[in-house]
TrEMBL record:
<feature type="transmembrane region" description="Helical">
    <location>
        <begin position="143"/>
        <end position="162"/>
    </location>
</feature>
<dbReference type="InterPro" id="IPR036286">
    <property type="entry name" value="LexA/Signal_pep-like_sf"/>
</dbReference>
<feature type="transmembrane region" description="Helical">
    <location>
        <begin position="215"/>
        <end position="233"/>
    </location>
</feature>
<feature type="domain" description="Peptidase S24/S26A/S26B/S26C">
    <location>
        <begin position="5"/>
        <end position="67"/>
    </location>
</feature>
<dbReference type="Pfam" id="PF00717">
    <property type="entry name" value="Peptidase_S24"/>
</dbReference>
<feature type="transmembrane region" description="Helical">
    <location>
        <begin position="174"/>
        <end position="195"/>
    </location>
</feature>
<keyword id="KW-0812">Transmembrane</keyword>
<keyword id="KW-0472">Membrane</keyword>
<feature type="transmembrane region" description="Helical">
    <location>
        <begin position="103"/>
        <end position="123"/>
    </location>
</feature>
<keyword id="KW-1133">Transmembrane helix</keyword>
<dbReference type="InterPro" id="IPR015927">
    <property type="entry name" value="Peptidase_S24_S26A/B/C"/>
</dbReference>
<protein>
    <recommendedName>
        <fullName>Peptidase S24/S26A/S26B/S26C domain-containing protein</fullName>
    </recommendedName>
</protein>
């Protein structure tokens, strides 16, 4: 899973410079828009043809696109992901100046922790699914799968706000909401594990070495840090207006 910002207009009008795309690793097919590794850099193109272990890539805007017409067929192994979601940007803006510049380490620390938890959950997705099935969805398999995907996406989409990336105002606000949703859910999950006495190896989200009560308290501290980061990163100007 990759998140990339479109640079240039070689895929216009399908994708515009500044758009954010979310990719998923899957076999490319004709018509797919993909992120590929070519000549030491990443490119975003459309698959025009597939031949055994190679693909032919073209830009939707041939007048400005450098693609397989220039560098030939691309190995399928160099396809980093297929674009699954696109977030259009009206105008990418700089993140608001932090109200307390010396404390920007707090949201950056949250970003690092979010990445660690995301990797942990991807490596132990069955444990996350077990907890959701046991506690949240009542055993509905479709609901379990949707909930697992929602938890993983919330963490991934929270990163642009914590990292103060140059994105659109709407996406910055959405990213903040995802971050608060994730850390709020983290606290609820650990509190439920503490109250219910469920094994922390099953759904405690990187708190397996702590007691249930300590895990709940620690996740509450993280939630407070997430809310505090909203103030540190100039919450009233989260939509992107500069001082």
């Amino acid at each position: 899973m990759l998140v990339r910002r479109v640079v240039g207009d070689s895929m216009a009008p399908s994708l515009r410079a500044g758009d954010i795309v979310l990719t998923w690793r899957r076999p490319p097919q004709n018509g797919h828009v993909v992120v590929a590794w070519q000549a030491g850099r990443e490119v975003i193109k459309r698959v025009a043809a597939v031949k055994k272990d190679r693909v032919y890539l073209l830009g939707d805007n041939p007048d400005v696109s450098s693609d397989s017409r220039d560098y030939g067929w691309v190995k399928s192994g160099d396809i980093l992901g297929v674009v699954m979601l696109r977030f259009g940007t009206v105008k990418a803006t700089r993140a608001p100046r932090p109200t307390v510049p010396s404390l920007v380490a707090v949201p950056y620390g949250l970003a690092l922790y979010t990445v660690l938890v995301l990797v942990y959950q991807l490596l132990n997705v069955s444990d996350l699914a077990y907890f959701i099935q046991w506690k949240v969805t009542g055993g509905n398999l479709l609901a379990v799968r949707l909930a697992v995907v929602a938890v993983l996406l919330a963490q991934l989409l929270a990163l642009p706000f914590w990292l103060r990336m140059r994105i659109s105002p709407a996406l910055r606000t959405f990213s903040l909401a995802c971050g608060l949703l994730f850390y709020g859910g983290l606290f609820i999950f650990n509190a439920a594990a503490w109250v219910s006495g469920i094994s922390l190896e099953r759904g405690a989200m990187l708190f397996g070495s702590l007691s249930p009560l300590s895990a709940a308290v620690s996740s509450l501290v993280l939630l407070a840090a997430a809310v505090w980061s909203y103030a540190i990163l100039d919450g009233p100007k989260v939509a992107g207006r500069l001082k």
